[in-house]
Amino acid sequence: MNQPYFRAMRRSRQQLTQDRALEILQEATSGVLALLGDYDYPYAVPLSYVYSEGKLYFHSAMAGHKIDAISKCDKASFCVIDKDDVHPEKYTTFFRSVIAFGKIHIIEDEQEKLETARKLGKRYNPNDDESLQKELDSGLSRMHMLRFDIEHLTGKEAIELVK
Ligand SMILES: Cc1cc2nc3c(=O)[nH]c(=O)nc-3n(C[C@H](O)[C@H](O)[C@H](O)COP(=O)(O)OP(=O)(O)OC[C@H]3O[C@@H](n4cnc5c(N)ncnc54)[C@H](O)[C@@H]3O)c2cc1C
Asked: Model-level pTM greater than 0.90?
């Protein structure tokens, strides 16, 4: 998953294992997707997602800043904050977070789009296939599904949390 041109973490003691970083991606329900937005201003937009087999999946309206940015540049990163416990007496926070870099695309294949929408739907409501199907029947044609292929993944935690 990791490519040589992605930089190494300076404080490597604080780096999480790949397994732990993946666990966080699997557990969290939202993060912030960073794209190259209008006039090359970075556009960091919060989104719900589901992780599956090295990929992140999102749903989106068919138009807007996010879709325009993805159409212009497929390079992206996605950040999830797992923990942010502020310790006022230490002027710090005990944090844990994950950042993924990769490429993001609108899913064009209808079958892949449907499977992705099902995955995302089940992530939020795993026990009601009937209502999910109704939702997809009425809404899927009016939304895009997005696939983010992860190329590089790092996790980091505050030194205070390092065992
Ligand atoms: C926890 C969370 C989960 C979400 N999950 C999803 C999801 O799964 N799918 C989805 O499509 N959307 C989700 N949203 C909403 C998402 O953040 C965007 O508002 C939405 O996707 C529209 O993006 P856009 O670029 O098309 O909006 P546009 O209306 O085209 O954006 C135009 C401008 O509006 C402003 N803007 C847009 N969104 C926000 C925002 N969230 N906060 C502040 N300013 C904003 C920015 O300045 C942006 O440049 C979620 C938001 C949150 C907070």
From this structure: yes
